[in-house]
Amino acid sequence: MNLKHHLPVFFLLLISVWGFSQSNQIAIKEDFKPSTLNQPGQEYPQVNSQGYARFRIQAPAADSVRVSLGLGGKGGTKLAKAEDGYWMGTTAGPMDEGFHYYNVNIDGGKFNDPGALNFYGSVRWESGIEIPAHDQDFYALKDVPHGNVQQILFPSKSTNTSRRAFVYTPPGYEKNQSTRYPVLYLQHGWGEDETAWTNQGRANLIMDNLISEGKIKPFIIVMTYGMTNEVKFGRIREFDVKYFQAVLVDELIPYVDNTFRTMAEQRHRAMAGLSMGGMETRMITMNRPDVFSHYALLSGGTYKPEDISDKSKVKLVFLSCGSKERPDGVRTAAVALKEAGINSVSYISEGTAHEFQTWRRSLHELAPLLFKN
């Protein structure tokens, strides 16, 4: 049974989506190189030009070692023990392009790969591996002017604590003291946090490159933690968005407007989110159409025309997903919105599933559409 057709779209972040080839006839090329996300000086894990990944783990006293693939991944790649005490293995097929989480299972225990950098996902720090993509240039680190990503701590009376957010300000923000900017509030998925969009998603580099190419008008991005009432896996229906809505709308947005040079009006404010962040975006924009004018759900569901109470307040609805998700639903929803007189755009990331390459591409497509008028 294909679980992808039986779970809500924002739940798919919890499924292993590695896109292995169905053919065992492919000859594996021995042109493996260290992943770009390895710890300094570490040779493994490695990837080859076909998208296969190879792992090497030191565990001389272990009886079983395997690499568990994807967020909450099960099964995975079994490694074989060599005489030197290292365990090695190669994935059964090529993986989808882009970023993937993984962890190492040693005799039933879950560990991170000491050779790889760690990224927060699946409600824990996971190892990460990058499969080079044919279109990776749009999020590459280039010799262009760069914006600044800074941490802010803002007071939250509703949660009785200080909360953290990361703010991207575009190149030139510090020098152009008279310029004010629109703002995109960009949410992560379930099990991730406010570091995801820059660390895994390369959001700041995507913005830097688009701005340097003259393809977008510069704007600010704000990323904060979307979980206020913690919900365990399998009990997502218990999540009540009103608590996060209070943090975002009543506390974070006023703080950002008072601290940064923003255009503090509804028509200059957007909200977007991936997976569960899309679910939050959908709920909050429906609850508070007076706050945001641009909506974007990235693998995070769709809107119906009747969900938009006042279409005159909505400048854009952007819907996206990977071609391995539910592309027909996204396309159909966008058409229905457009027929109802709402500016709607759909985007499908070819060859990807519920994963960061889908969302990197989605942000790259979304950004030029924001704040055009």
Automatic annotation (TrEMBL):
Protein name: Esterase
CDD domains: E_set_Esterase_N
GO molecular function annotation: acyltransferase activity, transferring groups other than amino-acyl groups
InterPro entries documented for this protein: AB_hydrolase_fold, Esterase-like, Ig-like_fold, Ig_E-set, Mycobacterial_A85_antigen
Species the sequence originates in: Dawidia cretensis
